[in-house]
Design brief:
This is Glucose-6-phosphatase 3. The chain has 226 residues and is an all-alpha fold. It has ten helices and no strands.
Length: 226
């Protein structure tokens, strides 16, 4: 893993060597793509577009938040900002890395929550926009615009997280793939047609399972809050 982490640090150095205007862009992306925007921005917009799509965005965001935490408890994953010191790499080599306010995130880093939650929650919105584009235009290019924008956004979010030293490249890639897969799977489950009781029971199930898992891991001597 050290070789993979070291390669990630080299890539972060390369990103940070870009022009000043690009630095401002990456910081803007990582701040605006915070997972909470799924609930404060994406959900209201999707609900205005289509009630069922809005419900899917909200529910997918909630499930992806839960799954991201659970995966981090098992996969752990170092954070670049801390790893360069803990590994001793910063004392062995001269690193041209800079620190930003978002660099000091703590806790496990794999997979990236920004990439995973954003990728999952936006999936139903993107597919709905693709359907609308197909209805109103025969142009194959126009039909690909929503998914093209979706991919570009996730790539930008991933690069921004590497830039601020919050994640290694492999952590953002795993976050993007896991988020897209989760978004696709949840969309096939016909969630909007489920009764309210289903969502109440599912929400309680997610809460109780996470609390139970946290307690079990602690009892097993695993410090998930390391």
């Amino acid at each position: 893993m050290d070789a993979l982490y070291t390669a990630g640090i080299r890539f972060a150095e390369l990103l940070q060597s870009g022009p000043p205007w690009l630095e401002k862009f990456w910081i803007l992306v990582t701040s605006q793509a915070d997972p909470k925007c799924v609930f404060t921005v994406c959900f209201p917009l999707a609900y205005f577009l289509n009630r069922k799509v809005g419900m899917l965005v909200l529910w997918t965001g909630l499930v992806s938040e839960w799954l991201n935490v659970v995966l981090k408890w098992f996969l752990f994953g170092e954070r670049p900002f801390w790893w360069v010191h803990q590994s001793g790499l910063s004392s062995k080599e001269l690193l041209t890395l800079r620190q930003f306010p978002a660099s000091c995130e703590t806790g496990p880093g794999s997979p990236s929550g920004h990439c995973m939650i954003t990728g999952a929650a936006l999936w139903p919105l993107v597919t709905e926009l693709t359907t609308l584009a197909s209805r109103h235009s025969r142009s194959p290019v126009l039909k690909l615009v929503p998914f093209g924008a979706y991919i570009l956004l996730l790539v930008a979010v991933g690069l921004s997280r590497v830039f601020v030293l919050a994640h290694f490249p492999h952590q953002v890639v795993s976050g993007i793939l896991t988020g897209a897969a989760l978004g696709w799977w949840l969309q096939t489950q016909s969630l909007p047609s489920r009764p309210p009781g289903f969502f109440v029971a599912a929400a309680l199930g997610l809460l109780l399972s996470s609390l139970s898992l946290h307690s079990l891991l602690g009892a097993a001597g695993i410090d998930i809050d390391w």
